[in-house]
Amino acid sequence: MPKSDVPVAEADNLSKTYGANTVVESASFRIHAGEVVVLVGPNGSGKTTTMEMLVGLRRPTLGRASIAGVAVRPGGPHRSLVGVQLQQAGLPNRLRAGEALHAAACLYPSPENPRDLLERVGLAHAWKTPVDRLSGGQQRRLDIAIACIGRPPFLLLDEPTSGMDPEGRAELWELLRATTGPSCGVLASTHDLGEAEAFADRVIMMRNGRLILDGSVSSVIATSGGEWRIRIPSASPSTMAMIESSELRHSRAGSTMVAIGSRHEIELLRAAIDADDAAEDVIVGPIRLEDVFLFARSEEAA
Questions:
Q1: pLDDT of residue 1
Q2: Residue 259 maps to which CATH number?
Q3: Does residue 199 sit in the same domain as residue 233?
Q4: Same domain, 16 and 161
Q5: 77 domain-assigned
């Protein structure tokens, strides 16, 4: 997507501590108009806290944030410049979809037409449908419509596809592309690395409250230093020993082993593993984000 030089959202050394517990440490990044940035990391990595500090829903211990150049503070004027979708929307069950969207539109000086927007997100038929009668995917679409109603330059979406099937997830990301356009920047979180790889312009990885990688999908994958990988979800002791004794870069998470190298090197390793244990479950192919994250996590722990 085309990218503006002016950030629509900026985090500058955001940190959050509770007593001696550091939840987020010195998070800094920028989001530009026209790009979809996906924040990834395991549960408890600090994704939600970082996003809440960015838009003023949680006060940082240190650091600052801005939305379209306006300083973020709880209850501040930046709120009219950002649309937010949280994991739990909290809409009253009997509130109708059209009523929810119309109420949100009243908060902005120049909102989208509620009926037109509901049609664009595929819910034209649900104008009079109570929220509790909508499916999970339809509720997510309504949440995004509410976030978009004020024509904000920045959208923040916390786990927007949570609980949806693969087809619904793909449809939702395409909907985001069509609804936001080049004048709006998006920051969305997910723990699904495959989803991030498929739909993000840029990926930010978090682990234990710290940003460990930030870049385009291709540049993040390139940090692995290889082109091909072998992944064994339940490696036997002999296979683990074979990989560990090889000269290939490798990492381990529990019983899962991953090694990376050239395609030729990986194919040779696969042949050796097959010869030793033909029943071993072996996955071979181009390096994926999940492999990069495994290496980044192990290296950070070291």
A1: 45
A2: 3.30.70.250
A3: no
A4: yes
A5: yes
Contact 55, 78 (CB under 8 A): yes
252 shares its domain with 209: no
Q: Residue 276 is encoded by which pair of tokens? A: 């030793």
Do 14 and 50 touch, CB atoms closer than 8 A? yes
Does position 300 have pLDDT exceeding 60, yes or no? no
Distances (CA, A) of 158 to 37, 95, 96: 12, 22, 23
Residues 105 and 244 in one domain: no
Per the CB < 8 A criterion, the answer to whether 8 and 33 are in contact is yes
Q: In terms of residue numbers, what domain contains 279?
A: 225-286
The pLDDT tens digits of the residues spanning 16-39 come to 999 999 999 999 999 999 999 999
> pTM of the prediction?
0.87
What would the mean pLDDT of 175-193 be, rounded to a whole number?
Answer: 86
pLDDT tens digits for range 36-64: 999 998 888 999 999 999 999 999 999 99
Residues 173 and 82 in one domain: yes
How many domains would you assign to the chain? 2
Q: Measure the CA–CA gap between 128 and 140, rounded to whole angstroms.
A: 17
Is residue 38 domain-shared with residue 151, that is, in the same domain?
yes
What does the pLDDT look like over 248-287, one tens digit per residue?
998 888 778 899 999 999 999 999 888 877 656 888 999 9
* Contact assessment for residue 253 and residue 297, using Cβ atoms and an 8 Å cutoff: yes
Give how far the C-alpha of residue 11 lies from the chain's centroid of Cα atoms, to the nearest Å: 16
DSSP 60-122: -SEEEEEETTEEP-TT-GGGGGEEEE-S-----TTSBHHHHHHHHHTTSSSPPPHHHHHHHTT
Give the whole-angstrom CA distance, residue 16 versus residue 22. 6
CATH number at residue 151: 3.40.50.300
